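Action item from last week, closing it out:
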Amino acid sequence: MRRLTKAERRLWNAFPTGETVELGPFQIGTSRTAGANAPADGHTWGRERSIRAEVIAQLLLGA
């Protein structure tokens, strides 16, 4: 596996404790819309917001 990105490292470190990792520019509340966080706009997100499936699979498989 390639070296972990900053976002992937944050997820990797949070996973064992169940801590939430927020990669978006803001958290969505009851008075806010998705805006830049809309999954439909995911293709516009950079590496700072992307987690490779390989990393998630490794976590789920017990790495």
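Closing note: Residues 6-60 form one domain.
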